[in-house]
Amino acid sequence: MIRGLWGKKIGMTQVFTGEAVVPVTVVDVSGWIVTNVRTTDRDGYKAVQVGRIKDRYASKKFDINWLKKPKEYFSFVKEIKLDKEASEIDGVSIAIGKPADFLAILAEGDFVDVFGKSKGCGFAGVVRRYNFAGPPGSHGSTMGKRPGSIGSFCSQGKVIKGKKMPGHMGDRNCAVECLKVVKIDKDADVVLVKGAIPGKSGSLVFLRKEKVS
Questions:
Q1: How many helices (H) and strands (E) does the chain have?
Q2: Predicted structure pTM score
Q3: Phi–psi pair at 127, nearest 5 degrees
Q4: Pair (75, 18) in one structural domain
Q5: For 69-87, b where at least 16 C-beta lie within 10 A, e where not — what string?
Q6: Given 59, 66, 193, 195, which is the most exposed site by the fewest CB atoms within 10 A?
Q7: How many domains does the chain have?
Q8: Helix or strand or coil: residue 43?
Q9: How many CB atoms lie within 10 A of CB 38?
Q10: Measured distance CA(95)–CA(42) in Å, rounded
Q11: What CATH number is given to the structural domain containing 99?
Q12: 182 and 165 in one domain?
């Protein structure tokens, strides 16, 4: 059994389910092909390696020589762990050069955990990074948006490790658990997931199907 599938975040929209409006995130799962198969005997673990073909080569037929220059022909190369070694997944053949059409493992109403990288915001101050209130807005305050006093008597005036300070914001691995799959469009190879997921439009995300206990 395959644990999930990789996709590309397109953006957010809304759909109607009955009379309710549901905010969803659209994930494009098209353009992936199998580039390698990991086995326990050879590699020590079970997984299938997939690559997303660049747009300029999307209309061309796969050539085995593409694997010699993956950075030239693939925008992403990722691996998906397998619970057991298999030659096919839900009727989809696992062989080098074959399309990695693993959308069949998901169904409308399933719940998934989404993994991605949060949007990078560069260097940020404490007001934006940690939602500090900041200084008073009147009475002649000249503090600006500085963090204020950072010392502590309990450690002889030293700055305690882990103190909230200005610094790099975002661009971290994040996960959002238990999101419902609202709709699957197999013709367009897109998945509509309820709610927001990490990353900006165009970023890579991994949809992992939740285990049923």
A1: 3, 13
A2: 0.84
A3: -70, -45
A4: yes
A5: eeeebbeebbebebeeeee
A6: 59
A7: 2
A8: helix
A9: 17
A10: 16
A11: 2.40.30.10
A12: no
